[in-house]
Amino acid sequence: VPGGWCEWSEWTPCSKTCGYEMISRYRTCSCPKPQNGGESCVGIGTFKEMCVCVWVLVDGGWSSWGLWSPCSGCSGASVRMRECTNPPARFGGLPCEVHIYDSPLYCGGGQVHFECGKPCPRSCDDLHISTVCLDSSECQPSCGCLTGQVLQDGVCIEPAECRCKYQNSTLEPGETVQAPCLNCTCETGHLNCTSDPLCRLNGGWSSWSQWTPCSQSCRGGTRYRFRDCNNPAPQNGGKGCLGISQQQRECNLQGCDVDGGWSRWSPWSRCDRTCGGGKSVRTRSCSSPPPKNGGKNCRGKKYQVKLCNPKPCGNESCPPSMEYVNCANRCPRHCTDYQRGIACIDSDPCEPGCRCPEGKTLSQQDGGCVLPWQCECTDAQGLNWAPGSSRQDDCNNCTCSDGQIICTNDTCPTVDGTWTPWSPWSDCPVTCGQGTQIRNRACINPPPRNNGSDCEGPETEAQNCSTLPCPGICPVDGGWCEWSDWTPCSQSCGPGIVTRRRNCSCQGPNHGGKPCEGPESESRICDLRECEKANCDIPFEYRDCGSPCGALCSSFQQKEECENSTLCVPGCYCPEGLLEFNGTCVPLSE
């Protein structure tokens, strides 16, 4: 059996980083080996050649981290190190990135370092019933208390030592508080409450929910918001909540988007020439329906053109640049056939006549045959563009190319509108008495573009002018009209409020006279009969000491006086933080 060479090995690597070196590759005569007197392989088993070694950039790499050092003391830190030796940076390679030292966060108050953050619960606040504690989805180092402990005031404690929150106050562990029909004790950071089975509790509204999405995207829809009578729920025969549990509003009153649709094609027009090559045109419009309320325009061609009557007129021959062919009514024939919005239609049957040689079309301007890139363009305003010319259209660049105006389709940046400076005040239209002068500004500096926001605020301002009295006309000060009758008492029992009003309209002010002085309304306390503690209508509650004046929305409004506003009298009042308005209780903001 004669011997056979095996495959060549890979080349040996260069051991030098620069200069020259011999590299080798090998093969063995063992595929198969010569046997039973067979001939050995013919040829060489080792092949060498010169290689030129160049510098190879080697970027640095970090070694493994060392052990943590002992803590440097109370409120101290521990450190571990690593080196840029695996491998070291060589021949211009990049060094290792920063962070030679690694030190955990300083964790005070008995906290320890967590590589991926402390899981819930982390603090006493996380134990509150109204709190939902969530673990982070990302691994971030942080400080935290040991398992079974939580943080309060920067110190790790047992959960049983956590304080509780009740309204705007804080309760110590084990401290009790009485809420409406409830006895509550502070335990492990939250209130553990038991209900009083004999207590009658009137219901109270929860906060309004968020508005629901609009039921329609256009043409008028409805959205709702809700509240429940569970804050608290009525208990043991207590009264339900007064008022509505649902509100609704109209929304999206704008019309719906309507995309445009093409009308039918018009009939073909008569050929505009009886000989020598003419055109017949038909059109359609984007009106079935037209686009509305931001709907899309029609896509496609508005015009269709077909060639007609290509034969030369009379005994004339074809123009010098044209040639006579058997099928002259084929597209394109003119440069205008390339225009956007125009579709050139081949006519049937073929008609002999004059046309430009293959690859050329007829120029509209000089009547000669030109290549497509030499065709002029016509825009929507009927203006001609020279071949290859460019113009700016808003934020897009348009170029005349092969008879078509081609524009880039860049998204224009949004530009919010800005006011111009105010104009000077206009001249006062009167020289005596009272006139009005105005000044203006415009939202054009710049105007809003590309769905930018419009300017906010008034476009015009007015002010009084020339308050000097006119000769022979005396200024007339304002005078109060008679007081109205007192309103009925605001409460059916206990102290309430009666109010009367007057208007500054029974005399002047005219010709620069002064406005009326004094309040527009007056309020007094009325006391029909003493209330029983259980007879307050929802949402009012009985109070042994209160001031009817201080509990009214009107007491906070200007131009109103309330007598005896500091009285302390028992009666039915709005709950703490609410004020009386139109027979119910509302926040000051409403």
What's the alpha carbon Rg, rounded to whole Å? 47 Å
Our estimate of the beta-strand percent is 25-35%
The number of E-state strands comes to: 36
Coarse shape: flat
Average per-residue pLDDT, rounded, comes to 79
Low-confidence stretches: 72-77, 99-103
Main sheet: strands, sense, barrel: 3 strands, antiparallel
Structure classification:
mainly beta
Helix content: under 10%
Instruction: Please list the strands of the largest sheet in the order they lie side by side.
Output: 11-12-13
| Distance between the ends | 108 Å
Please report the number of helical segments.
Answer: 0
What does this 3D model show about the protein?
A three-stranded antiparallel sheet has the order 11-12-13, with no helix packed on it. By secondary structure, it is mostly beta strands. A hairpin with a 2-residue loop joins strand 11 (176-179) and strand 12 (182-187). 13% of the residues are buried. Mean pLDDT is 79; it is low at 72-77 and 99-103. It has no helices and 36 strands. One of its GO terms (molecular function) is peptidase inhibitor activity.
